[in-house]
C-alpha cells in the first residue's frame, strides 16, 4: 500500500567528483563507429556539431566547439578530418581523436574575419569525401515517424548540405544518425568507465535537488532556488527550472524574482551530463493548504504516479523489449486517464534525452550498460502534476564486477542507494538496476513538510 508518511530523506553523498573517459574507452568508441559504418556500407561519415546538437561529435572527440559549428569527417580507411571555425582551431591539439584540420571561417560568429576565405565549395571539396560507398550525414534526430522514414531527410543546416551535394553524388547521401543513437546505435550501451563518467552528473543533480528541496520556504525567490540547483559551475544539459505559481508568465523560462507563496505549485529541474532530477509539487504542509479542487491530489495524481514508478523500478530488466516497458506503464498508468504522451523512459548520456527504445511497437532488447531516465509525466485535466524523475543503469553480473573493481567508491554509493530505495521507500528494486543518483524516486508532494515523503507501507522495515 502506498502512503505519505514520515521517513528519513536520502543521506548526502561525499566524495563525488568527475571521472574522465580513458584513452581505451575513446578508442573503443571510435572502433564501434568505424565497424558500424563499414557494416552499413558507408565509406564516409560527416558528423555535424554545434553547442545544442553536438553529442555525437563529442562522443568521438571529447569536446564541443561551444559557440561555433564544426564537422567531423571519418573515412572507412581511418582518415579523420576536422572542419573548424576560427576560435576552435586551437582545440584540435587537445582532441581525443587525432585528425587533419581544415579551417572553415564560415563556421565562426557573425562578422569575424573571413575576407581571405575561399568559398565553402572549395573548403568542402571532393577530397574530403571518400565515395566508393555511401556518404552518411549525422545530425541529432531520428526521423522515425510513419511519414518521415526516408533516409534523405537531414537535420544538418541547409547551407552545409547543399555545399556537400556539390561534391557528393546525392544518390549516395543518407542520414546516418542511427549509427550513433538508433535502436542498435553505438552510444546506447556503456562500459564501466562511461557509467562512472556520467554518474558524476546524475549524482550532482540528485545532490543539488535534495539541497533545494530543503530550502523551499514561503518567501524564497525562484532565483534563490535556481542558484542552489546549479552546482560547481558544471554545464547544464537542460534549462534549469525553478518556478513557483504559474509557469511561463510573459513567456519566461528562467528563474525570476517571483517569491514562493503558500499553496503555490512548484516546479524544479536540474540536469547535467549523465542525469537529470525533476520535481513537481506544492509549497504546502499538506492538503489543508490547497484549494478545494486539489484535495484529492494525493489519491488522484501522486499515488498512481508513484505506483507506476515503483513498477518500473521493480520490473524493468535486461532482456526485456522496449514495447514491454511501454505496455507495463500503459497497464499501471493508462495514458487515456493519466495523460502522459512521451516515452515512459529514455536514454541519457551527454544530452538529457538521447533517444528512446521505449515505444509502443519497439522490439529493441534492453541490454546491460544502457542508461535510462525513469521519466513518466502524468497530465490530468485541472490537476497539478507530480514528478520524481531520475536515472538508472542496467547492469549484468560482469558489468557490476567491472564497476566494483574499477570504481569501488561508486559501487559503495550504488549499494547505499539500493538500500535506501528498498528499505526506506519500500521498493523491491530489480537486481539489474543500479541507481545513478540518490534522489530517485524520493518524492515530497508537499515541500514545506520536510519530514514526510511517499513510500510503500507493507515493505517498510
Note down, in words, how this protein is organized.
It is a single chain. This protein has about 450 residues and is an alpha+beta fold. It contains twelve helices and 15 strands. The strands form three sheets. Strands 8, 9, 10, 11, 12, 13 and 14 form a seven-stranded antiparallel beta sheet that branches. Strands 5-4-3-2-6-7 form a six-stranded mixed beta sheet. Strands 1-15 form a two-stranded antiparallel sheet. Strand 9 and strand 10 form a beta hairpin. Helix 6 packs antiparallel against helix 7. The two termini are about 15 Å apart. The model has no long low-confidence stretch (mean pLDDT about 95).
Low-confidence stretches: none
Overall 3D form: globular
By secondary-structure content and strand pairing, the structural class works out as alpha+beta
Number of helices: 12
**What is the percentage of strand-forming residues?**
15-25%
From the N-terminal CA to the C-terminal CA, the straight-line distance is: 14 Å
Radius of gyration: 23 Å
Short description, anyone?
This protein is of the alpha+beta class and 461 residues long.
